[in-house]
Amino acid sequence: MNKFFSAVLLLAASVAGMSAHAQAVAADSIEATIKKTIEPRLGDGAKVDAVTKTPYSGLYEVQIDGDVIYTDAKGQYLFIGRVVDAQTYRDFTKEKIEAINKVPFAGLPLDKAIKLVKGNGKRTIAIFEDPNCIYCKRLHQTLQDVDNITIYTFQYNILSPDSIVKSRNIWCAANPGKAWTDWMVSGKEAPAAAASCTAPHEDVLALGKKMKVTGTPTIIFTDGSRVPGAIDAKGLEQKLSSPK
Q1: How does pLDDT run across 190-208, given as a tens digit for each residue?
Q2: Of 202, 243, 191, 204, which Cα lies nearest the Cα of 222?
Q3: CATH code 3.10.450.70 region(s) in the chain
Q4: 3-class secondary-structure state, position 242
Q5: Which residues neighbour 125 within 8 Å (Cβ) at sequence distance 6 or greater?
Q6: Most CB contacts within 10 A, which of 56, 76, 120, 208?
Q7: pLDDT, tens digit (0-9, with 9 covering 90-100), for 67-80
Q8: pTM of the model
């Protein structure tokens, strides 16, 4: 290959590199502009966590506090809803929200949760619950029919000051797992806790806020996925049986 063609190839490679760099800079600029434009409109001090260009219709995905919305390249219009494949009905929005809200289960402070083992206990879940939560009590009725499971209950006292009192009494009981089940299933209150006994209420509250747990019950599975609200026995079994 002569020197002329070598120079041409070198120049082409350089131009291609500059073009790719320019495109990356342009993309970064657009994403920065979108963030700067949208963030002041959110209110309540909400922040844009990330902006990413999607492969569908020139939309940009905007991640905000564990949720996803969409906008155009100028941040002029907001699209609030789900992006679904019209042929396969694959829900891209749902998948993304689940991905950004995944929980590193192994990192949960399980020593701050009430542990209950049923059967061989080989399947594991964690639940954020409030003792005054009607849907949590409904979930515990469902759990009566689920065997071979270990349940870690984080007492997430967000409904009333009375929740803190009830949770502390249960935490300080001789058998907290039984005391929690007795209350949630049968309405049997635990005896008043000794003044010297402390419960991890503040730590669990901080944990739930950090994980953006907004309601009870919220079930956390070992694959990091979560289900907000009560779930029926069939749905729970399907989640527990799905590949991790």
Answers
A1: 999 999 999 999 999 999 9
A2: 243
A3: 26-100
A4: coil
A5: 149, 150, 151, 152, 219, 220, 221, 222, 240
A6: 208
A7: 899 999 988 888 89
A8: 0.74
